[in-house]
Amino acid sequence: MGILSSLFAKQPKEEETMGNEKLNIGIILGSTRQGRVSPQVGEWVKEIADKRGDANYEIVDIADYELPFLGEADAPGIAKWNEKLASLDGFVFIVQEYNHSITGALKNALDLAREAWNNKAAGIVSYGSTGGARAAEHLRGIMGELMIADVRTHPTLSLFTDFENGTDFKPQDLHLDNVNLMLDQVNTWSGALKTVR
Questions:
Q1: Half-sphere exposure of 39 (CA within 13 A, CB side)
Q2: Residues 91, 55: contact at Cβ < 8 Å?
């Protein structure tokens, strides 16, 4: 077959190459502190995501795993954490800004796994006084080291306009399009990277 004819040859349908199996996307809550608002944000993202029907979405709460700090004695939570991550094809990180960066709990959770993160895609939904933008940029650098491909679209939520009294999450409607576009990208990249693993 010549070069031109091979370029225009019938390509297999997506169903033939990827199967009909839906991707599994974890929505990771990046805070464990008392009074946190990340569960509200995570549930909002999941509600939007579930309406799409394009993947299996689930909330993954770091607090449920009782992870030790990296370097402390091994704990059962580390194995369970790695098993959960290994079962996922991609991620959406719910990220809050603490002192211009991500939380210690999220950094620790990232550090307690390695291969389970590799060759997967992730999106970020961040919040803070500047929309959590500085925390998201720090997370992008960490994800690069863990071989997580981060997508471009990044919904940013403001403590001033998307939360009442800093605690009750009331997102503006304008964020809906950004969340859906971010999920489009996460699914496309997660599907592509599944062929690499």
A1: 9
A2: no
Tokens 């809050």 identify what position? 96
Backbone phi, psi, residue 29, to 5° = -80, 120
Show the tokens assigned to 106: 């999220």
Type of residue at 60: V
CB atoms within 10 A of CB 18: 14
Beta bridge mates, 149: 121
Half-sphere exposure of 42 (CA within 13 A, CB side): 23
- If 0-12 CB within 10 Å is exposed, 13-18 middle and 19+ buried, where does residue 139 land? buried
What are the residue boundaries of the structural domains of the chain, listed by start? 22-194
Quick one: pLDDT at residue 107? 97
pLDDT at 6: 41
Residues in the chain: 197
- The CATH H-level (homologous superfamily) assignment of domain 22-194 is Flavodoxin domain (3.40.50.360)
pLDDT tens digits for range 19-52: 579 999 999 999 999 999 999 999 999 999 999 9
**Angle of CA points 163, 67, 186, to nearest 5°:** 55
H or E segment and range at residue 109: helix 104-111
